[in-house]
Design a protein that fits this description.
166 residues, six-stranded antiparallel β-sheet, 39% helix, disordered N terminus
Length: 166
């Protein structure tokens, strides 16, 4: 239990993290004993899908950091199908495509060009924000698994994207 408390303090100490060359950031805020909110921001309009990946990934990181495997989304700025894809009883890899397209060298280069084109126009940059509010679940709380997001699956499937941006 003491190790879990120390880990919790370490996680709380990391409240603002820069995410690689694209300058995405996220903020964690604890709302209750096992309830959290993660927000991520960027200044170009095409960032929303990337930001939603970041907030789901960070929710999974926090869940694992506290020694749990599952969390339930209470509010999410994206489409519910995105987080339900990772549900315990959600679709399997062979039964449907991920809601997030695969990240390739070509898609990364296109994203950089689009972002740079937008930022170089001199347009007044508006902050775009994505968020997730979630509750970390005990195993006994996962119910039928339709609402319980598997943090291990989120970490595994979004890892390549996150690694490219850190």
């Amino acid at each position: 239990m003491r190790a879990r408390g120390m880990l919790a303090l370490a996680v709380l100490g990391v409240t603002l993290v820069g995410c690689g060359a694209v300058k995405f950031q996220y903020k964690d805020r604890q709302l209750g004993a096992r309830t959290w909110e993660v927000r991520s921001t960027a200044v170009w309009p095409g960032a929303a899908p990337d930001l939603r990946r970041f907030v789901l990934y960070r929710a999974a990181e926090l869940t694992r950091a506290f020694g749990y495997r599952y969390f339930a989304v209470r509010a999410y700025s994206g489409d519910a199908a995105e987080h339900r894809y990772f549900a315990v009883n959600g679709p399997r890899r062979d039964s449907g495509p991920s809601p997030f397209p695969a990240v390739t060298e070509e898609s990364e280069e296109a994203a950089v060009r689009a972002r740079n084109r937008y930022l170089s126009t001199g347009t007044d940059a508006r902050v775009h924000e994505q968020y997730v509010k979630f509750r970390i679940l005990d195993t006994a709380e996962i119910g039928d698994g339709s609402e319980a997001v598997d943090a291990e699956r989120v970490l595994r499937e979004l890892q390549a994207f996150i690694n490219r941006r850190r």
